[in-house]
Amino acid sequence: MSGADIAHRDHVSQLYRTHYLWLHARLCRYLDSSSYAEDIAADTFAQLLSAPQGQVIREPRALLTTIARRLIFQLWRRRDVERAYLMSVQQQEPLHFPSPETLAQAIQALQMIDARLDGLPDKVRETFVLSRVNGLTYPEIAQQLGISRRSVSDYMVRALKRCAMHATAQPTYRPSITRESA
Known about the structure:
By secondary structure, the protein is mostly helical. It is built from seven helices and no strands. α5 (122-132) crosses α7 and α6 crosses α7 (149-168). The longest helix is centred in the middle third of the chain and has 31 residues, at 60-90.
């Protein structure tokens, strides 16, 4: 570990000691549970720790709020995906109702797809979901979204390229705190 890495870790550690309670209290106002607030606060500092070093943080609370807000939006989007899937499953006949394990795997797969499509425009994501999850044809998608078939094709190419890019990308480093490192 280089001196810059140690200095960055120490700086983030100082920010954690100074601002964690403030961030947790702020997040409790937005979320329905203190445990979610703890998770988001911890993930916020973990992202800050894995961020490139060398940047001077002039307004740490503004930066922490921005990172936490982004994580909250990701949490809400995951909940929306899960809720939509569960609603579609409930509309199925009881004989075809999947097991809890199958439900968990499907929700996890949908969340992974959602994460891969993160950052794409809404119509591109919606086109992909309508095609791959709902099984609609390109003409049906074009009619439902009020766009041309060519746009549907272009949007699918964009979404598939994004999925392929994430599939070949290296996983990002997420530090874990263990007894030995604490």
